[in-house]
Specification:
Elements lengths: L31 E9 L6 H11 L4 E5 L9 H7 L1 E8 L2 H11 L3 E2 L2 E2 L1 E4 L5 E2 L4 E5 L11 H12 L3 E8 L2 E6 L2 H13 L3 E4 L4 E2 L9 H5 L11 H9 L11 H18 L4 H7 L3 H11 L4 H9 L13 H26 L1
Antiparallel strand pairs: 1-3, 1-6, 2-3, 4-5, 7-12, 8-10, 8-11, 9-10
Helix pairs in contact: 8-10, 8-12, 10-11, 10-12
Protein name: RRM domain-containing protein
Length: 345
């Protein structure tokens, strides 16, 4: 989880209205925007508050958030479907904006890697290290979020992705760390039935910057007066006492794995009820895997003898049911990741 260095000095009431924010022709010019993309929010009406809460959790004051209107932005119909939104987040200090880009880009928020870039300067995907997904990716619907494509490509290639974006309905872009890794990734993905092709021209990482929507912002300048909630402001201005984090127990990890499954099910439009019918003992299975890694003989015995209902008719599963088997694997992958971290420590 990304962490931002503590603010020094701490925020005060003066930060809410920096010089020029009340008397300029374009008040947002007194602030420092960043572009935020891939932000998951179940209720669009709560987006501004959720964004401000997220930034506050990182110690940053998101003074205001500009979300485009559906009337001016047809792409939002797709965003309403995936619950993944983008917006401009205005911060009160230039250092805050730099740190947001430096520390929060690629932070994982409810299963999706965030895109955080400057809100005024355009950043581009490099043709030397960026690919576009072409054709069908096994197990992924064509209109799925970019993160699902990234996850499958990463599994197929074992190569790190530095940025993903779906800024248009017909385009999913993935940026590798280097041109060499991109070339290797294209070959490895092809072996797994995934088509990737390098892009021929530069493409924007931000779907928009401030200049692109300046007239839209001018018409809604009242948003400058919309302060974060009193609770958010109080925590940022007073600071919070540090707590020593409790090490998660196996139960905590299992609950997180099950929540991961619920999140992915929503993203992939799968049925959580069907999943529960196919895997009624998911909790016990995940718990047994964790306990077995510590040498628990009873847990090892459970794993060796347990048969899930779906396995009894494995050869008769239809594609829809197989998608729920893959969903279960998301939880198992999370549990295996916990075990791997324990071994490394």
């Amino acid at each position: 989880m990304a962490q931002v260095p503590a603010r020094n000095p701490k925020y005060s009431a003066a930060d809410l209205w920096p010089p020029g924010s009340k008397d300029r022709d374009f008040p947002p010019a007194a602030f420092f925007p960043v572009y935020l993309g891939n932000f998951l929010c179940q209720q669009r009406a709560e987006l501004v508050a959720r964004v401000q809460q997220y930034f506050a959790s990182k110690g940053l004051l998101a003074r205001m958030v500009f979300v485009r209107s559906a009337q001016n932005d047809p792409f939002q119909s797709y965003q309403d479907k995936t619950k993944l939104y983008d917006c401009l987040v205005y911060l009160t200090r230039e250092e805050d904006a730099r740190d947001a880009v430096k520390y929060l880009h690629r932070d994982k928020y409810y299963g999706h890697r965030l895109n955080v870039f400057p809100g005024r300067n355009r950043h581009y995907f490099s043709p030397d290290s960026t690919v576009q997904v072409v054709g069908q990716v096994p197990g992924v619907c064509d209109d799925s979020p970019a993160q699902m494509f990234e996850d499958e490509v990463r599994k197929a290639t074992c190569k790190a992705i530095s940025c993903n974006a779906r800024n248009a309905l017909d385009q999913v872009l993935l940026e590798f760390k280097s041109s060499e890794e991109m070339e290797t990734g294209i070959r490895l993905a092809y072996r797994k039935g995934i088509g990737l092709t390098s892009i021929k021209t530069t493409a924007l990482k931000q779907r928009f910057v401030e200049a692109d929507i300046k007239q839209e912002i001018r018409k809604r300048q009242q948003f400058v007066k919309e302060l974060p909630s009193p609770d958010v402001l109080r925590k940022l201005m007073q600071g919070k006492k540090k707590r020593h984090a409790r090490l998660p127990a196996n139960h905590d990890h299992v609950i997180r794995a099950l929540r991961r499954i619920q999140t992915v099910a929503a993203q992939r439009h799968l049925s959580i009820n069907l999943y529960r019918a196919m895997f009624p003992n998911a909790y016990n299975q995940f718990m047994a895997v964790l306990q077995a890694s510590n040498g628990d003989s009873q847990a090892i015995g459970f794993i060796q003898t347990y048969v899930a209902p779906w396995q009894l008719r494995q050869n008769q599963l239809n594609p829809w049911e197989w998608m729920h088997v893959h969903l279960h694997n998301e939880g198992l992958n999370y549990v295996q990741g916990v075990i791997t971290k324990r071994l490394l420590n």
